[in-house]
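Hey, quick one: can you model this chain's 3D structure?
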Amino acid sequence: MMKLGNLCTVRDSKLVWLLCMLVLFSLFKAFEPIEPYLVPYLVHEKSFTNLQVTTKIFPISIYSTLAFTFLVAPACDKFSYWATLLAGTFALWITFAILRFEQGLFQMQIMQVTYGFGVSSTVIFPAYIFSLVAEDEFQKFTSITQASHLGAYFLASELGELLVSKRFPYALLLDITLISVGISCIALYLLPWVWSNNQRKNPFVLNVCSKDQGLWCAVKETWRSNNLQLLSFWWAAAYGGFSLIFNYGTNLFEEISSTSQYNGHVIAASTAVGCLSSLGAIYLEKYAASAGGFIYIISSGLVGIICIILGYCKLIWMAYVLYVVIASIRNLLLCLVYAQCGRLLTNGQYILMFSLNTLVGLLIETIFQALIGIFSFSVTCQFVAFGVYFIGFMVIFSLLYALYLQKTSSAVPVTYADPREVNDDPIPCEICVSTESESFIQNRQSLD
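Sure thing. Here's the predicted structure for all 448 residues.
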């Protein structure tokens, strides 16, 4: 009989192997040196005008990302996490293959559809991780894989800038990207196949409109916990706000100083700092849980104040520093909230949580961008508006958190106890129920 110490060693070795493969996948999927140069590549290599790129090509990816983000949860329920993630990664490879070998406008629009699928599939990855490991590993695996993603993006950006400065063709950057994403597909192929909780029973994709089973029941069961509802509100609101900030960061730098040559390096630095803050979440996890919702209240208010300062800032170096600070806050808090929300699920529907929270965030971002276009805000006014937005949802979150504390008489919205203890009502729907222990045992067996 194998001794307990040997069992622990076997378990640890499997976890290390699993983590290495997940990091390998994350690294190569994010290593895309062509990404910052898509516009010049389309203009100079494919002979499109800047107007065509901004009005006829890129907008398609916005709508396709929204659609596919909604569809990934039913797809994972029908075909498994692994298969859907592989399809999304392969769609990303197809995206860059179309860019490399096709020419026409219609082909580029198709490319944006496959790109939307590839981008939306990123929400599957953390859900896939949570389905593979125990709760006490959520934060570690989330932070390390997120850090590897950001580190790869940083290295790819710096490599791209180096090659462009040496006057290498954009096609070389695209070839490197194709090879890298192809390797990520191979790495994913070596990872375990994981089925979602409902697949052995009755996939909710077949019962979308049913109130007693399927998708509607899964949604109700996923967000039964008041804790999870509260954190999901912050997650979606913050996701949309942070996306807006980083979408318009370079525009702000250009407005403050059109002659600055360090914009690319600052964005790379913000990515590197974000990588470090993601790793820092591992060590701050328990402190953040002890602080409860206050860490999200304080951080949201701080980001709002920084955005308002950026709106009035005239010094480019100050703007650079504040931008990097926001990047570090974003990655730290998102890594924390992902793991905390994952612990609060009672039905194991991680993909449903990630996809719907992200979808709401994307909708907020899309609405805000539409308002910016309608009112023709200058980039400085945009950042003031972003600041008001963060302070506004901080106030709403604070009120909801105060009501939560009054109701529960607890200072901590996230605990390390069994999340079922925070739910008073019995689980009404058998189709949506699969205990975490059962799910974990099944998924660990797939590793064997």
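One thing worth noting: The chain has 17 helices and no strands.
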